[in-house]
Amino acid sequence: MRKLRVGIIDLVAKGPNRSLFARLMNANLASIMPQVIAAWCEQEGHDVTTVCYTGLENLTDHLPDSIDLVFIGAFTEAAQLAYALSNLFRSRGAITVIGGPHARCYPEDAVKYFDYVLGFTDKSTIRDVLQDCAQHRPTGIRIAAARQPASLPGVRERWKFIEPTLKKAPLIKMVPMIGSLGCPYTCSFCIDSVIPYQPLDIEVIKEDLRFLLQKFKRPLVGWHDPNFGVRFNEIMNTIEEAAPPDSIDFIAESSLSLLSEPHLIRLKKNGFKALLPGIESWYDLGDKSKTGSTKGMDKVRQVSDHVNMILRYVPYIQTNFVLGLDSDEGPEPFELTKRFVDLAPGAFPGYSLLSAFGQAAPLNLEYQRADRVLPFPFQFLNNNQAMNVKPRNYSWPDFYNHVIDLVSYTYSWRAIGKRVKANKATIPRWMNVVRAISSEGFGRIKHHTEVRKRLDTDRQFWRYFERESTELPQFYMDLARRDLGSLWEWLPPGAMDHDPNAYLKSLAAN
Ligand code: B12
Ligand code: SF4
Asked: pLDDT per residue over 318-369, tens digit each?
């Protein structure tokens, strides 16, 4: 096989972004798979250049002019950026490949703009692409391994690609690691609800932790496991065998059901500094939060007690909620979340508007069958800029009124003050203040308020939300253009539109 010049782009940002948060944090959000693919391509004997796009780089400057094959890893919010980049690199003679959450969720759309669209990706998937490396136009080909890979290169093997990204992070430098794939739980809206749980090689994890202790005085590791700690004792034994107690700081997404007091004692001993459990709803998904059939205010009390207990062991906690689930009705779910904000003032609540990411979850088929999915361009599908599922039990104005009320309550100066008081450690304290007053808190209040106002005043808006028209309101078109910056010119014709029911149609066609 000829030696290829391979470029690999990890799109952490969806367009130019020079905000303080982006400068401080975006490099810490780098994905694992682009680094993995870089390692695999080198093992196959090719020349590799990687870039993690944090919103600050000029992408075309970072890759050599003559490149044979470009891999792009993208979330759906970065799909338009990925499409524009593919168009640009194709114009220079390159073959293009997309992988990551967007490719898994919207493969029917991505094939219009890429030569290859990858689903589950293992080393042999990459080898197939490297060997074929040919134009597939106008429609690209879809390739996917039968299941998630059995093993992934660890930090030591990925270090060459991790290090330049961490250099871009001025203060906090977080190394991405992963100990498992899939999840044994079945939360109906989640991409991993149908993917079997599978632990990765513990010897690789041990070696990586030892390696990091040589690289940093006190390493910081962000676990990318969909649900960290499912085999709790196994992963804790692994950490304890590799690293002295509390010598590495860890951050993990873990469900509340895994965070019992004995587990928290062990997590504290091993240096866990931040946890991000999903609570999601006061009426649904009880298994995940270990609340069983307890619902409503009883669940709020139980979960608040649990969260306050966690904060006695781990200094930072973000609790995730989904707003607009079908199980929610009337003001009560929002009022209950406000009570949670009062009862667990130290937690940072993260809110996601219910979103159907294409093929991510079987539940999305139900929304498509009921014709409830809106065709919002991908750029806005990041759980907050747009909600692409028409709520079952709320009108749009009613829903946005509740969302604005809840978000304003959560990021009010009163709540920010109470959060500062409840957090004892310095970094969590100030991290929460920065998040609340930045685009995540104040920024979202402003955005939701603007949307709500336009639902009353802008006829085009109303018609789009009510599915009476598919013409994107100018407000969103302007936002999209601003997001993409100079790459807007490279956006292929039609790339702002997609078929919101493609998943359902693809099943009907088979
Ligand atoms: C870890 C994680 C994060 C981490 C790390 C993010 C990162 N840059 O990787 C953090 C907390 C930072 C994060 C943030 C966000 N996340 Co997140 N996150 C996850 C999570 C829990 C695990 C993903 C993971 O790494 N899995 C392990 C890898 C190895 O497996 P995989 O993702 O299945 O990937 C396979 C293939 O897709 C392929 N592949 C993956 N990447 C690439 C790249 C290339 C080039 C190729 C060829 C192949 C390839 O190979 C893998 C092996 O088969 C998933 C949920 C889940 N349960 O999976 C959500 C998930 C990916 N996140 C999601 C979202 C929406 C977000 C946010 C937008 C949320 C927000 N509003 O802030 C941000 C965006 C951040 C960003 N732009 O980088 C959605 C994505 C939906 C979509 N279609 O875009 C998911 C699916 C959750 C959901 N809602 O269901 N997230
Ligand atoms: S516990 Fe988390 S990762 Fe597992 S299915 Fe539910 S939402 Fe997905």
From this structure: 999 999 999 999 999 999 999 999 999 999 999 999 999 999 998 999 999 9
Contact assessment for residue 192 and residue 227, using Cβ atoms and an 8 Å cutoff: yes
Q: What is the Cα–Cα distance from 223 to 411, expressed in whole angstroms?
A: 27
Residue 225 CB–ligand 2 contact under 6 Å: no
Most distant CA atoms of the chain, gap in Å:
64
* pLDDT tens readout for residues 267-307: 999 999 999 998 888 887 655 556 666 778 889 999 999 99
CB atoms under 10 Å from CB of 65, counted, come to 8
Which residue's CA is the closest to the ligand 2 atom numbered 5? Answer: 193
Q: Whose CA is nearest to atom 9 of ligand 1?
A: 31
Confirm or reject: Cβ of 190 under 6 Å from ligand 2. Answer: yes
Atom of ligand 1 nearest to the CA of 276: 11
Q: What is the atom index within ligand 1 of the atom nearest the CA of 226?
A: 21
pTM: 0.96
How far, in Å, is the centroid of ligand 1 from the Cα of 282? 25
Distance CA 186, CA 337 (A): 23
Closest residue by Cα to residue 322 from 290, 294, 349 = 349
Alpha-carbon gap, residue 15 to 173, rounded angstroms: 22
